[in-house]
Amino acid sequence: MGGSDDTDNLALACRRCNERHYNFTAAADPETKEEVPLFNPRSQKWADHFIWSEDATKIIGITSTGRATCNRLDLNDERRADRFIQKSRRFWVQGGFHPPHEDPRRS
Predict the structure, then answer these.
(1) DSSP per-residue letters across 24-86
(2) Is residue 107 part of a domain?
(3) Which domain holds residue 68?
(4) What is the pTM of this model?
């Protein structure tokens, strides 16, 4: 928020996530109802806050920040009837493109 467009201040994001993130820096953890900071990819490690579901179609928040980020950005398209992102991830898994090898996965 209020940051520069210098490359050191940018994080790669799809249009959908960027629009949902907007200028929010915090959100409510759906489990605890506490307001917590959203995940910051420039200063936090993805694996500290998220894991993939066993079938790699859903991102699961494992911390309050992870859960709040998943909910605020609707990272699993759970508010859409067609679950487009989950269907897309299923195809990516079948093609061997997803999830990234270094990302943890629920077993």
Answers:
(1) --EEE-TTT--EEEPP-TTTS-GGGTEEE-TTSSSEEE-SHHHHHHHHHHTTT-TTSTT-HHH
(2) no
(3) 7-94
(4) 0.81
